Amino acid sequence: MIVIFDSLMARGGDDMPEHEQHEQHEQHEQHEQHEQIKSAAAGGVMRMSLDDVREYMASRYAEPLSIPDLARLAGLSPSYFGEAFKKAYGQNPLDYLTELRLGQAKRLLRESDLLLRDIACEVGYSDEFYFSRKFKKEVGITPSAYSKSARRRIAVSSTAGIGNLLVLGLLPVAAPLDPKWSPYYHYYYQSHIAAHLDFTGDEHDEDNYRKLLAAKPDMLLVQEELSAGLRQRLTAAGIQLVALQAEEWREQLAETAAVLDKAALCERWLAGYEANVRPAKACVREAVGADRFAVVRLSGEQLHLYSNKGIRDVLYRDLGLNTTPQQAALCNEPISLEQLLALNPDRLLLLICPDADTRRYWLSLQYSPLWHKLNAVRCQQLYLIPSNPWFEYSAIAVQRMLEETVLMLTGKNPIVSPDLVHGVRSNGAL
């Protein structure tokens, strides 16, 4: 067979069309590669770990990969390889390969102008119709519908709006970005989000209007109240304003997904989050037992017993940490150092506002004898937490809070964030 193929290649330079020569050359290289794998494995030259095989798949997902070939790389029988792979990674090798291929297909559908058949070929499917059926089965919509919805130009009026769009595989064309209050988004996405907005006051209306017109969004998702004048001008400019009403982050995400025809993706992401919560809760509980927690916010020279929606949801609802009834709900109550000492939590999370006056007081507070009488301080169970993500309330922020809490309390890093959007690395959830 190889001899016949080589003879065809030898005479094809003059007689065959160029594209056929290219296809035969690729087929020849793939055949040679698989023959090398077989001979190397048979001779005992190559034996990869499962991690290495998984990395091999990630780097060559567009090539024809079979279970027997992958098993040979690991030095295992095909059936045992499949069982070992699923036990190690929670999915069988073919499902992982499909995840890799469709994840890259989504990226190409979002970011390129390639034809569907070219995208199918790029990610390892020779038949574009099979690729379309596979894509619809796994994603819930056709590649064409995904491309159309992913290319909608969406703007958001809040930082939380960015977080909710990201888990839906979208990036806004305009959004509030600030290196101080939203450093995560500013670091990863400032070059991808063209218009940086500021909805902190009506005095920014003219600047926001000008930036939104330049970004040309089809839709603005509104969580903060806009002035009547700005709303009227944006509507007149043909920008659809969608006011999001939900209060809880899960409902906010679902409401956003419904507006953007992303309900199936939303449901899968939420299911993945809930699946992460269960082992996180068990891991944290093992590490902290019945220790009592408190979260305190320091602003100026005033301590506040503090719990916002994200802290309430992640620490006390999802992870079930032990705290006072007051903190299990929303609170932002001034508390003296003496009152905090009377409460005397075993573990203390401290939010320090990033202004000069607060930082000066924080330095002096660390020399206070009362401060050092706190159980959490004496036992070195004081945790400084940043404003971002702990002041934000979105799907991404809640996921990051969950991850940071697990790392903070157990030393184990779940490594989930950030999401894969426009080339930023993630766990491949999309």
What's the CATH architecture name of the largest domain?
3-Layer(aba) Sandwich
Q: Quick one: CATH superfamily of the largest domain?
A: Nitrogenase molybdenum iron protein domain
CATH topology of the largest domain: Rossmann fold
Helix content: 55-70%
Strand order in space, largest sheet: 8-7-6-9-10
Please tell me the total number of domains: 3
Largest sheet: 5 strands, mixed
Shape: flat
- What amount of the residues lies in strands? 5-15%
CATH class of the largest domain: Alpha Beta
- Please give the radius of gyration in angstroms: 27 Å
Number of strands: 10
Count of individual helical segments: 23
Structural class: alpha/beta
Mean pLDDT: 84
Low-confidence segments, given as residue ranges, are 1-23, 36-45, 416-430
Between the first and last Cα atoms, what is the distance in angstroms? 41 Å
Record the SSE blueprint.
Layout: H1 2-15, H2 18-42, H3 50-59, H4 67-74, H5 78-89, H6 93-111, H7 116-122, H8 128-139, H9 143-150, E1 154-156, H10 159-167, E2 174-176, H11 183-189, E3 195-197, H12 205-215, E4 219-222, H13 228-236, E5 240-243, H14 249-259, H15 263-288, E6 293-299, E7 302-307, H16 309-318, H17 325-328, E8 331-335, H18 337-343, E9 347-352, H19 356-365, H20 369-373, H21 375-378, E10 382-385, H22 387-390, H23 395-410
Parallel strand pairs: 1-4, 2-3, 4-5, 6-9, 9-10
Antiparallel strand pairs: 6-7, 7-8
Helix pairs in contact: 1-2, 2-4, 4-5, 6-9, 7-8, 12-13, 14-15, 15-23, 16-23
